[in-house]
Amino acid sequence: MELTLHEMATVEQNQALKEGRIDVGFGRVRIDDANVRRIVLREEVMMLAVPFEHPLGLAGKPVRLQQIVHEPLILFPRAPRPSFADQVLAAFRDRGLEPANMQEVRELQIALGLVAAGAGLSIVPKSVHGMQRTDVTYLPLDERGVTSPIVMAIRMLDDSQDLRNLLQLIYTIYDDEGIAYVRETL
C-alpha cells in the first residue's frame, strides 16, 4: 500500500473522494453525502484546557460546562464550517447553555497559546493532552457524551482490499493500545 498525506478540511476531502484524487480521509466532522461513507472509528472524549494557574486547574477536579459558560472560550477552527468548533458549541447547546464570551481562532496551536497566555479556556480532544505543555492544564469534563468522533471517509461503494487492510490495522492498534471502539466492516 502506498501512503501519501494531504492536509484537507472535511469539505475538501468529500470533493477529493468523489473526484478520485484521494481514497480515504480522516477527520472529526460528519457530513451527509450519498456518495461518501463515513465510518466512526471511535468517539474521543473532550477535555478542558485551562491556564496553568487557573483556579479550576488548581482544584484539579472534573468540570461541568455550566461552570465555564461565562468564562472566555477559545474555539477552533474558525473556518471552514462545520468543524470541531461546532461540536463544542453543540455540547453547550445540548445542555441549554450559550457561552457568553467566545473567540474563534484558526487552529489548535493558536487556541492553546491563548489559553497559556490566560486569554481564556478551550475544549479540546483528549489526545491533545499528550502534547505535554507545562503552561496548560487539562481537566476532564464531568459531562456524559461530550465526545468528538474520529471518522474515516471513503467512497460509498469502495471496499478494496487496501481499505479493508487499513481499517484492520487501525483496529489492531486500538486493541494494542486499549482504545475503546465499535468495530465496523467495509
Describe the structure in brief:
The protein has 186 residues and is of the alpha+beta class.
What does this protein structure show overall?
There is one protein chain. The protein is an alpha+beta fold and 186 residues long. It contains six helices and seven strands; from the N terminus they run H-E-E-H-H-E-H-E-H-E-E-E-H. It has helices at 10-19, 55-59, 65-68, 84-93, 108-116, 161-177; strands at residues 25-27, 36-51, 72-75, 101-104, 122-125, 136-140, 147-155. Strands 1, 2, 5, 6 and 7 form a five-stranded antiparallel beta sheet that branches. Strands 3-4 form a two-stranded parallel ribbon. Strand 3, helix 4 (84-93) and strand 4 (101-104) form a beta-alpha-beta unit. The protein is elongated and about 50 Å long. The mean pLDDT is 94.
Radius of gyration using CA atoms only: 18 Å
Query: What is the general shape?
Result: elongated
The level of helicity is 25-40%
The counted number of beta strands is 7
Features:
186 residues; alpha+beta; five-stranded antiparallel beta sheet; two-stranded parallel sheet; 6 helices; 30% helix; elongated
Write the layout of secondary structure elements.
Blueprint: H1 10-19, E1 25-27, E2 36-51, H2 55-59, H3 65-68, E3 72-75, H4 84-93, E4 101-104, H5 108-116, E5 122-125, E6 136-140, E7 147-155, H6 161-177
